[in-house]
Each structure stands twice: as structure tokens, then as C-alpha cells.
Amino acid sequence: MKIFAKVLLVPAILGTIWACSETKTNSADRYFEKGEYELAVKTYTEDLKFKPTDAKMLYGRGRAFQEMGNYADAKADFEAVLSNDPNNFQVLLSLANIQLEEKNYASALLYATRAEEIPGAPASASFLKGRALHQLGMIDEAMKAYGNAIQLDKDFAQAYFNRGMLKVALKKNKQSCEDFKLASALDYPGAEDILTKYCK
Predict the structure, then answer these.
(1) Which tens digits make up the pLDDT trace of 160-196?
(2) What does the pLDDT look like over 80-138, one tens digit per residue?
(3) pTM above 0.85?
(4) Quick one: 48 and 125 in the same domain?
(5) CA distance linking residue 24 with residue 171, whole number of Å
(6) How far apart are CA 190 and CA 194, in angstroms?
(7) Contact 39, 31 (CB under 8 A)
(8) 10-20 and 123-135 helices, crossing angle to 10°
(9) Quick check: is 5 in a domain?
């Protein structure tokens, strides 16, 4: 049974979490925020010559590589951060997201689970874990993970949407409609269309 999963919106959230932790914004960060990823990579690389182990810059360059679809270099930067900070949940979640994009669902599950176990990890850790489980066909576990994400963040529209799609696959249409209504109320893209399709 093929189970539907939406494109992930988490990368932007992850970048914001880290960016908000520091008030100083350098030119590489500004390039990233403008979507000028090649210039961001170039500037981060120049800055890293003077601070080769700077976690924030390595993460920023990794995110720029990720946005460009250069997953190999993104992973190298993220893993460099993890080597000095193994409990950095932003980096673990970025790695989980890349593994999902590359359809390496077991690896995504490992990274997301590690992130979820760190105190203070955001709801997106449980959500990514749910997506990996969802793709691996571990339905009950995926349902629980999506539920955990929602429990941590009542406004997590994508978690409601994905859980609703999982319920559709399980033929729990009434329950799925409740999730679609919540996702739609939170303005999740496509939720209104799915609500119309399944919940007439």
C-alpha cells in the first residue's frame, strides 16, 4: 500500500531556530535569507577559513548546500558540526530531512529519533520521525509520532495533514476529516482541496 506524504516544510523552521539564537547577522546569513545560496556558500567558505570549526557557519553553509540540492556537501558540513556537538538537534533534523529527500527512510528515522530524545527538541523531531515511519510502512508508530508532534505544537498544520492522510490509507475517513479541518484552519497548503475531496 502506497502511503501519501507531503513535501516537507521543516528546513525553513530549522534555519530560523538557529538564526534566532544569535542576534548578529553576517553577510553570508543575509545572502541565505535572500535565497542567494551560491553567494551564501562562497561567503561562509571565506569566513570558515578563519574559524574552520564554527558550528553556526558550518550549519549555515550546510543549509545553503541543502537548498541547492547539493546533499553530499550539506551532509559533510552537518556531520562536521555533529563531531563536536553530537546533541545538536537542529543538525540532526537537517540530516533526517536530507535522508527523507534521498528516500533513505531508515537513516532518517535514526537521525529523527536521536533528535527527539534530546531535551528541548522541537515538535519537528517527532514529525520527521513520523514521516520516516510512515514511509517505512510502520503505521501505528507513525500515527503515534505525528500525535506527539501535535501534542508539542497544537498549531503544527503539516502534522495534522500527514496524520489525516495516514488515516485515509487506514480507511478512517471520519477521523481523517477532523485532521484535515484542523490543517485547513491553520492554512496548510492543499488542505482545503483534500478536505473537499474526502469530506463532502
Answers:
(1) 999 999 999 999 989 999 999 999 999 999 999 999 9
(2) 999 999 999 999 999 999 999 999 999 999 999 999 999 999 999 999 999 999 999 99
(3) no
(4) yes
(5) 50
(6) 6
(7) yes
(8) 160
(9) no
